[in-house]
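User: Assemble these into one structure.

Assistant: Restating your components, then the assembled model:
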Amino acid sequence: MMLRLTLALIALLPTAALGASAPRWAVDKARSTIAFSATMNGEGFNGRFLRWDARIHFDPAALQSSSVVAVISTASVRTGDATRDEALPTEDWFAAKVFPQAIFRSNLFRHLSGNRYQAVGTLAIRGRTQPVTLAFTLVITGKRAVMRGHVTIDRRNFGVGQRHFASPDSVAAAVRVAITIVATRAG
Amino acid sequence: MSGFGSAAPPTRQASDNRRYSVTAILLHWLIAALILTNLIIGWRMASSRGLAQFELFQLHKSIGITVFLFSLARLGWRLAVPPPPYPASLSIPERRGATVTHWLFYAAMIVIPMTGWVLVSASPLNIPTLLFDVVPWPHLPFVHDLAIPLRRAIEAWLGPVHVWLAWSLAALLLVHIAAALKHHFYDRDAVLSRMLPGFKRPRQGPEEIS
């Protein structure tokens, strides 16, 4: 599985390498998470992905040469409920057998003010690609960076939730993705 | 001479040869198969878990609504087209027993799915009903629009009622089957065969000589 993710990243490298004069950052997996919160029947629940990888080239002083590609294993989703975790990789939801990876690719970065940024890019889940803008804060101390970002997506735009769950009656359409990345500058 | 009066020995009458209509026979066996299947699914649902349980639930709902609709049709047909009269050989208690059983069936086949429909409409899980994963079936608005705590209460109370009624139906089914077999193999009358497809003539019972 990790091999597959790494291969996917390598395959996407040419995209990431465009103008990658920005230094590369090595992600500290133990301290980083790709998580989300959703609502079912009015009750919130949280989830995260156990397996993912990200190739980050970033320079706050050279945003135009920065890029991020993240590859997430959809089958590795965990929400703390056995039935949910059994259902999420299936055809009605992530269809992980057909679409084992969700992929985020940045197109450009914006610095808003202070340590607030935006990463504008595309997110591909379950075979559908949608534009997304990830708002994040970034604090760089020496060679260490802590990034916290979030974006709220409509799962219906990706076809996640079919048949009984196509309508937002039982599972809400809005899903808030929350990302925490701790990384060390490698290059 | 044969005639009325319980003292008269039973003889075969012309009415013994009358059968249920093709529509009645079709609906009877179709509904019987669906009910039997759903009783089994309902029983299995309780011990299954996770996604498998979810899938069984959806199938159970689909079959339940189908039974409901077919039973309404069966009832409509029953009211429009009277069934053949009981064979003359049936005693008064037997006739009464049969009549009660049959009307209990009509009640059960309509009320039990309705309790299921209310349960699904009340459930805070709020999962839409898609018959056989294709045909949308609405929730009951006057149930679905109630406040959540009230819906939970309805669900908690009505759930066991639905199950208890299902067990009662299963018991009724056993009585019904046993009676039909008794009539067919012991009394050797037309009661079962007139509901069986393809039989033109009831089995001949022993003739009694007055």
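The longest strand of chain A covers residues 128-141.
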